[in-house]
Design goal:
122 residues; mainly alpha; 5 helices; elongated; single chain
């Protein structure tokens, strides 16, 4: 069986250089690194359709949760299975609507760590 030859070279041990730059290039690289200052236009665009969908889900989920509460407490006529179904559907609609609305609100307020790019666009 043939043996393989290792064509790899060891990495440099100094963290400040990568072994290919000269002193002048290192100074320019330290001043401006485009990887960290690049912000595409897509990053700042507001996804209005997704926010509208999130608000709709939030309101629908709230309505379904209120209806299930009224069915459970007896303020409305209905069976407990109807109340459980409405409760399940209410949570199913409320949770993603609340999450996306919260991300949109914090992005609008400019909170650190939140931006409109975290909301999917449709």
């Amino acid at each position: 069986m043939a043996t393989r030859r290792n064509n790899y070279t060891p990495l440099p041990t100094d963290d400040s250089t990568d072994g290919f730059n000269t002193g002048e290039e290192e100074e320019e690289e330290e001043e401006k690194d485009l990887r960290f200052i690049y912000t595409p236009k897509r990053y700042n665009r507001i996804p209005w359709k997704s926010i509208a969908l999130a608000l709709f889900l939030l309101l629908l989920g709230t309505l379904l949760l209120v209806l299930s509460y009224f069915l459970f407490t007896g303020h409305m006529d209905g069976d407990s299975s109807q109340a459980k179904g409405l409760l399940f559907l209410g949570f199913l609609a409320f949770l993603p609507g609340f999450y996306e609305t919260r991300v949109a609100y914090y992005s609008w307020r400019g909170a650190p760590g939140y931006n409109f790019a975290a909301i999917p666009d449709y």
